Amino acid sequence: MRVRTTLAGTAALLLSVALAAPAVAAAGPARHGRGHGHGHAATREAVEAVVRDGVPGVTATVKDAHGTWSATAGVGDTRTDAPRSAADRYRVGSITKTFVATVLLQLEAEGRLSLEDTVDAWLPGVVRGHGHDGHAITVRQLLNHTSGIHNYTEDEDFTRTYFLKDGFLRHRYDTLAPRDLVAIAMRHSPYFAPGTSWHYSNTNYVLAGMVIEKVTGHPYATEIRRRILEPLHLTATSVPGTRVTVPRPSSRAYGKLAETATGPTYDVTDLNPSFASAAGEMISDSADLDRFYSALLRGRLLPPRQLTEMKTTVKGAEVPRAGYGLGLQETVLDCGVHVWGHDGGIHGSGSAAVTTADGRHSLALNLNADWTGDPDAVVRAEFC
């Protein structure tokens, strides 16, 4: 399920590829919450294996017909050896995209915009330069990554400034406006003509957040809170804006801030997530993510037509076993099971949240490291 959803382009290879690395902390026994713990032996083993592979700590929560089950392994703080908790809040990275797409589809259902509206109709002159043309790109193409718009996190200067050690330590608290991020992308040529191919681009969702604000008159964060978080009572989920800390309970987040998985490990928990914007700034916990994706797939957030639109997928070379819809990914696991959801990566954090097509079996998990570990292995263990 790794769809280059980490917020770096070049840095995606550094932050999300599973590489062999010495363990930061020894794996402790999995800790289990309420529910039918006897039914998840493979998932428990996969959680513990991720820690043996070098991730400091993991937290995972499953919700299905039998109830809610949680497991943790490893530590949430390498200084104190405090364990991870099933209640940990964490940065979810590109899982944010599903929330953003849901709001835009709600607006379509209300007749306030069309997926076939051009970007320029809502954001005149914003997508322009080096071959980019907002007149030729639709809202739909933003949401399913067929716009061809350059990914701003693949800009080399951006990567050096916000993902590698010297730049990150100097700039971790900088505030960047959405237009600043789009302007970085406009310095480059598009990947292809709109609608002719597929390429994951965080710029698409920065623009999607800007469209929400233009349509509603409110920041996209306000609309997510009003339309999703409050109705579903997702009390652990937030859109932090420029807030640099993660609300408690939470663990620390760790990264290498380097082009390899070797070398020192840094605490990267505190940062200004405005560099991620609507492409990946949100914070949540595993129980909330289970509830969100279950509600979404069960039709509680979108009318049937809009949910069908969201689940209409395209395929690209980057996602050979998956299809990407509108902020929602379908993955066919090795065992043939289909799951829907998204994954996400940001400094010191790798997450995945998936559910079955009927929304009745959901899993969300987080790794507090960005240089090693495979969330997909836990997903396969739970569903296969």
From TrEMBL:
Segment forming the signal sequence: 1-20
InterPro entries cross-referenced by the UniProt entry: AmpC-like, Beta-lactam-related, Beta-lactam/transpept-like
GO molecular function: hydrolase activity
Domain Beta-lactamase-related: 49-370
UniProt keyword list: Hydrolase, Signal
Bilayer-spanning residue ranges: none
Keyword Signal: yes
Pfam families: Beta-lactamase
Matches recorded under SUPFAM superfamilies: beta-lactamase/transpeptidase-like
Top-rank taxon, per record: Bacteria
Protein name: Class A beta-lactamase-related serine hydrolase
